[in-house]
Amino acid sequence: MWYGVQILRRGCKLDSVLARLPAARSPDSGDSGSLGRKSPGLGWDNDTPLWLLLHIAPIRNEKDVVVLFLLTFRDITALKQPVEEDTAKGKKKVGLSKFARLARSVTRSRSVLVQQFSSHLPAIKADPTKQSQIAHMISLNSDILPQYRQEAPKTPPHILLHYCAFKAIWDWVILCLTFYTAIMVPYNVAFKNKTSEDVSLLVLDSIVDVIFFIDIVLNFHTTFVGPGGEVVSDPKIIRMNYMRSWFIIDLLSCLPYDVFNAFDHDDDQGIGSLFSALKVVRLLRLGRVVRKLDRYLEYGAAMLILLLCFYMLVAHWLACIWYSIGRSDAENGFVHSWLWKLSNTTGKHFYFKPSSNSESNTTHELHKGPPRGTMYVTALYYTMTCMTSVGFGNVAAETDNEKAFTICMMIIGALLYATIFGHVTTIIQQMTSVTARYHEMLNNVREFMKLHEVPKALSERVMDYVVSTWAMSKGIDTKGIKLRLKDMTATFRYIFNRKVFNEHPAFRLARMVVLLLAMVSPMIIAALGICLPIFWREY
């Protein structure tokens, strides 16, 4: 196996079923090879002439660095005339005619080779001022040379890749707006907060609805990963897949319920309650978080934050339900409900105000009372104490409805507490596992030194060696990873050692062949004051 630079420093020789003719022998002159084009003459075992055109083309990556060389062999025997044996020595005309025929055939075959390159590569508009020098040496334009890089999937102009930077930022925006919706919708429904009465809140909710509607449109134009792991970019397949999966749920969550609620009249309480209840459908937007949950599972810190946010979100929902139950009991005349007791404690009492509906039936509505913020904080305090413990008794369930809800809330809270905080413990343990292994290793080394009565000077050197080794690897099993990535060992060694070869003065003026030692040089970590023998071998 030869590396790219080594290929350029060797002559052209093919040893297989082909027998080299004397006229086609290329001298192995070490540095005589150059990047470009050669036309070695070969022959079969029966001395039938065979002419091959050899092109050496550099392969660049996305950083415009030559990483490979492409060797292309083309049979040009048909383009050449039979080479006559020059038996008469000293006839210069015959030799010149042979050289002219060879140059003409090579020029003729070059156009064929360029055509072959162009047919397999996409047309790229290259800047003529940035033509590659290596491409100029081999008389090939840089716009037809292949590149060694990860090829992005070819998608139509109106299709977005699901892993592009814009889509990643957009998903985080949708995640934040989803949590905003999950907080505000239950609060507005429980406290009967009409967005039509608050212009700023109405504008904000309308903007959120528009953003979620734009997200539906983007989902019709975003690629997805198919069952076989391939990236699906066909617009028809994308639309059908989205229509069969999340389209209905996303559409129901984006309907303008605030516009419907604007038609809520005081004389028809039933329709107003229906429109207020329809806002809860917006909680279906949480499905957007569920479908992208696998992306957040890769990061321990992100998953920890999401679990805590979900726990607080459930507590917020239960607080809104707890307030609704207390207000319903207070409106029904239960003066011993928690909400009525709160009004007596704060000194801001409720009072009933008579009202009439469309059927001319007189009803009484609850008015005044403690501030809305005080009632919400008290409800959230009670739900948090019940979810984390058994409560403290300062806020307690008094009516039958409150007691039944408290029982259900304790069951839900116990399950959530065990599940969520169990995961939190696991995540924190994983985040601190490296530090724990580090201290355990240091303790084992110290115990080993004490057990064998190692001298203090040597013990300090051993500890320095252990600490420096850990600082280099961070506790990662490098040997196991290298075994799994055995085919890329040379690439990793070059990346690990290039800093030494690029910055050390001893290698500053070294030739490229010497720098190739970075690919075959293993990393050796030695203790202070110890010189390890280094053995060189030829690769």
UniProtKB/TrEMBL annotation:
Domain PAC per the UniProt entry, residue ranges: 35-88
Membrane topology: Multi-pass membrane protein
Record field: transmembrane: 169-187, 301-325, 404-428, 513-536
Entry's Gene Ontology cellular component terms: voltage-gated potassium channel complex
Family matches, as Gene3D superfamilies: 1.10.1200.260, 1.10.287.70, PAS domain
GO molecular function terms attached to this record: voltage-gated potassium channel activity
Localization per Swiss-Prot or TrEMBL: Membrane
Pfam families (alphabetical): Ion_trans
Keywords annotated in UniProt: Membrane, Phosphoprotein, Transmembrane, Transmembrane helix
Signal peptide: none
GO biological process: regulation of membrane potential
Matches recorded under SUPFAM superfamilies: Voltage-gated potassium channels (SSF81324)
Xref: InterPro entries: Ion_trans_dom (IPR005821), K_chnl_volt-dep_EAG (IPR003949), K_chnl_volt-dep_EAG/ELK/ERG (IPR003938), KCNH_animal-type (IPR050818), PAS-assoc_C (IPR000700)
Cross-referenced PANTHER family: POTASSIUM VOLTAGE-GATED CHANNEL PROTEIN EAG (PTHR10217:SF435), VOLTAGE AND LIGAND GATED POTASSIUM CHANNEL (PTHR10217)
Protein name: Potassium voltage-gated channel protein eag
Protein source organism: Trichonephila clavata
Lineage: Eukaryota, Metazoa, Ecdysozoa, Arthropoda, Chelicerata
Gene: eag
